[in-house]
Amino acid sequence: MPRALRIALIVGGLLVGLLAVAVFAAWLLMPKDWIDQEAKRQAARIEGATVRWTRLRPGLSWLSLGVRVEGLYVRQPAENQGDARLEARVREIFVSFRLLPLLARRVEISAARVSGAGIAMTDRGVPPPEPAAKATPAGAAGLALIVPRLDFDEVDIRTRDPLGGGFDLRRISGRAGIDGSLDRPRALQIEAKCESLYWKPSAREARVALPAPLGIDASAEARDKGTKLKVTRGLVSLGPLRSELSGEVQLAAPGGKEPELALVLAGKPQSIRSSDEAFRPLAKLSPATWNTTASWEIRIHGPASAAIQTGRMTLRPLSVTSGPNSFTLDQAAASWSVQADKTFTARANAGGAGLKLEADATGSTAPGGATNGSLFVSGPAARLNGLVPNTPTWTSGDLECRASFTVRPPAPPQIRWSVKGKNLGGTVPGLARPVSRMGFDIDGDDRVASIRAFNATVGSTTASLTGTVHQGKPLGTATLQATLDRFVAEEWAPPPPPKGSPAAKGPAKAAAPPPIPFQALDATVSIGELRSGTLTVRDVTVPVKLADGTLAAAPIRGKIGTGSIAGALRLTELASTPAYSLDLDVQRAPAQDLLAGVLPIKLGFTGLASGAIKLAGRGLPGPAVDDSMRGALQGTVEDGKIIETPLLAGIRKALGLVSGGGPSGAELAFRTLTSSLRIDRGRLLLEKVKGDLGQDLFEMTGSMGLDRSLNLDLLLRLAPDRIKAGTALADFARYARDKDGRLPVTVKVTGTALAPRISIKPAKTLEIAGLKLQQEIARGLADRVRRDTARTDTARADSTRRDSTKAEDPLQKSRDALKRLLGK
User: Fold this and answer.
1) Average of per-residue pLDDT values in the chain
2) Is the distance from CB of 569 to CB of 621 less than 8 angstroms?
């Protein structure tokens, strides 16, 4: 081993040994009991505060001797002396002492470290008068007021004003180096970082996350014989924003004069984006993305307790993008000033891409101070597209908004506003048709909104609306007057799902109505013409009430053709799974149009319907329903016709009937049709349908599916002139007539309405035919008995046998005709 290295090792060993001896000696010589007694004595001398700790003992940290304080609690004022203005809990404080003074049994602090602290500072208004400080006896021993180094980590600070507003700083860590005493340092250096920063506007408002982390790295040196501190290096960061700190602080002078500030915080132009991590809590409020170049300057001068602040920030340019909506504001600027008496003024403006924004405010920053301001925004409506989710997508039109406000905490803000729209056009969520020519003029305050004018065209509907809306949380109440020249149900239905989407492949679901932004509604609606399918109702008037999630429209009154309609509609669970119940009383309404408006089945008859309709199901009433529909239809149809359909054509062909006349020669006219129908599990159940077809009669039972499937039993009682001469049915009709002279025929119908399968059931017809033949034979026998009463019994028997033989011929003919009819 080289000689120089051996000498270095020996010297190093000696130094380590000396250091160990010094530390051991200091440990033995450190006045442990005196330190504990002195700490308790100093805590007891503090008036108006409570100071206590769980444990205080000498400690060793990285060859530093000192005192470890665990579980420190500080409260001001003292316990049982009022609400806390300052409350701090510290998990651990380690105070290091200088070694050489300890060898002389003198305590001098070399450093301190604070780990895990929570500090809450609450402004309770005017503080109570502080008690006069006790004079310290000359020469009294005490801890030095010099702390050359302070390290801290995991420190949380919370501030609150008398209204519950303030800031929360979470997970603060860093260090401070102080050359000299705390009240008059020769040099100062600080590095600190706050991981999270929150602002709480008031006690009733939630915390708002601000850009973070917040950091400071600054140094200062004494000037002018130690009377001021000059900032020699300063960097303040807030998220991605970087500011340079410059200026000086005039230290407190004898006589109680407080420190004077003369500081400047300036940010050179720098790029910021919504994708920056610090701005994500704010950026997530909108789907839009943005980027800009920001610069600012803030000046603070005057006494520390009443400093004057002036500032200005400029964003140039500000680019915003949300899907196809992309625009750029040439410049956005804000300026403000805060005076010594805490009054302030602020102004902001922005412009570009047709947009204009102006805002100003004046007031006081003191807790409870009033603030007054105004806001003006105008521009093309298309600039709003995509900025807020689930809102209209505008293609044309302009918007203008004005607002004035007064804020006097803790009272809620007082706001007066107005919104105007002109020539708006675009698409609205929940509507299948685009909106055009929309215009509105609405104003209000924080309690009531007045709809002075509202006009819009949706498809073929032009609507106008006036009324008032009383604000509420989360929804308000409204009193409205609505007038629609025309309402086509299909145009207001939600659009169908895109092809190939899961919703398009799955079973159809009941449509939910567009959202209603009211908790309670009282409206009168007038509709010039209401259409649902082929159903047209005119001059409709209906009062509408919304309460507790249920919308009731009653009484509904309108004209339908030459008749009338009256009833009530009830919608429940509008916000989740809407369901409806509809009751209608109809008088002489067009039957085919009426049923087509409420059922997805086209029935093959016309006429004037009168009766009652009761329906219930999911979604909204109308022809587009699912198998949740339940209901009943009862009433009569007068002066109508059964029109030619595949079903009617099939029956006519199977029976060989004479046409019923009409333009096509196929309609069957009737005077009265009586029906009793039910709807259940996706089928129309015909409990009993009967009526006349001129001289013919019919009865029908069975069911029809909403999918147009058929399962019907039809009993026809045909007049003789309905049956074509020379057909098998005409031959058979001679012997199969009922007591009124009609031929009964039972028909079974299955298949679908477009492709029916028809079969004839002969049982009823054969029964009547056999009865008629028996009656005819009996009458023939009775006639012969009266003409030859003198014949012998044998002659009468022979005559009877001859007549019986003749009677077999017509019966045989009837059987042959039936075989031909049935195709057997």
Assistant:
1) 78
2) yes
Confidence of residue 763 (pLDDT cuts 50, 70, 90): low
696 touches 716 (CB < 8 A): yes
- Residue entry with tokens 């309690």: 447
Question: What would the pLDDT profile of 493-532 be if each residue is shown by its tens digit?
Answer: 555 555 555 544 444 454 445 556 667 888 899 999 888 7
What is the rounded distance in angstroms from the CA atom of residue 210 to the CA atom of residue 279? Answer: 8
In residues, how long is the chain?
824
- The two three-digit tokens of residue 100, written as one number: 């050489």
Would you state the structure tokens that stand for residue 789, as one six-digit string? 């009463």
Tokens, residue 808: 């077999």
Neighbours of 793 (CB within 10 A): 7
Reading the block at residue 507, the tokens are 């079973």
Instruction: Tell how many helices (H) and how many strands (E) occur in the chain.
Output: 11, 40
Contact of 65 with 98, CB cutoff 8 Å: no
pLDDT for 654-687, tens place per residue? 666 655 544 444 567 888 889 898 888 778 888 8
Identify the CA nearest to 821 among candidates 723, 741, 721: 723
What is the structure's pLDDT at 19? 45
How far apart are alpha carbons 154 and 674 in whole angstroms?
Answer: 86
The phi and psi torsions of 621 (rounded to 5 degrees) equal -65, 145
234: left (phi over 0), alpha (psi -120 to 50) or beta: beta
Phi/psi for 308 (5° steps) reads -100, 135
Please check whether residue 437 is in contact with residue 446, taking contact to mean a CB–CB distance below 8 angstroms. no
The residue type at 141? A
Q: Classify residue 384 by its DSSP letter.
A: G
Alpha carbons 511 and 494: distance in angstroms, whole number:
7
Distant-in-sequence, close-in-space partners of 379: CB < 8 Å, separation ≥ 6: 353, 354, 355, 356, 398, 399
